Amino acid sequence: MMLRWPVVVFMSLLLFGTTGCQEQITWVGAHVYQGATKAPGSKTAAELVREGLNASPRIRVGYLPTPTLGTVFSGPERLGQHGYRPNLSERNGLVYTCKAGPIDIGHARKAGDWTIFLAAKTYRQIMKGEPEFSFRLYEPSRYSVRLTYPENWKDLPQQEKEHIAYEVSTGVGRYLAFVGVTWHEIITWFGFKSKGLEPEHPSAFTWEETFSNLFGTHVATLAIEDGEHTFNQAMTRAFDTELRKLDAKPAHVSKHAAQSVRGPWFTGDFFFIVMKKRNLDLGLDDGFVTPTLIPSVSECEGAEPQPLPVPNLEFVSEYGFRVKFEIEPKIWEGDAILDIAYADGNPRRDCVEPVVHLAPIMAYIRQDAVRRYGSEADLYR
Fold it and tell me: 33 to each of 51, 64, 121, 240, how far by Cα in Å?
């Protein structure tokens, strides 16, 4: 993927052009911070936010939550040390927890790393006084952020600016990361294939997906609050603590739990898997994502799901800021998504604004899931 990424960007420019939903947007790629920190190393998360990161998070392997070819099941004692950059200690896989169901650790780590990267990016732009910037994750879609500063921003003392910028950027980073990884689920539902010809619809919004991503941003937030350990160390400690709070179980429990729902939740094996159940909860109704617990796991008798709050942008008003976030699809499937987003009759633009358009998009996906897999397709009700 690292070799193909420049090609993907170049081809997206050829196919879709360079004009977007915000004409004068400032491009801030993964490698523009001259002199900034390339990787966490010996830095705390707070230091990384303030100094910036010019190396985007690495790609990690995620798994279907099924006991099928290639899936790795793990336990909290097997995860090793978190590594923003590759290391031999880090281990991933599906870990079953009594209070949050299965968690894909690879996806959680990815969301956590994007949280710190995007927090650092936002902080850098605020301190430069930039009104807007954009970025990409792994697919061609472009994410645009527009900042409105407090009226007295230029008059504030430097130390106060730094404090406010830090508080705003860490919260915004979590929001951008969560929506960014959620956008990947949306576009794969509509047919986007990040790996070429391999269909990815079966992996879109699987029952552990959204909570795993949200859990990763939650762990990163705890790592940011840890002023004593390096980012990698803080992430490792936070993963261990939070998984134990959720009553994580050994690998054999994780595998048995997945096997127990063969038939009612999924069928098939190898490359012919039908995922009949999804969890489509993004917290759009109550502000929380409720995880999916697999029924009849004897080791977790009586357990209740532990929801997590979804990040939002409302908090920035406390600091006098406003943030507008939009996504320009830049993929073949984009037209279909935009048609749904603007089905209310408002003038159509080439962008999705998550705070406005996630609700109609998810309503369509829920209807589509029922059409494809039956009235009980959505595990969140």
Answer: 9, 36, 9, 32
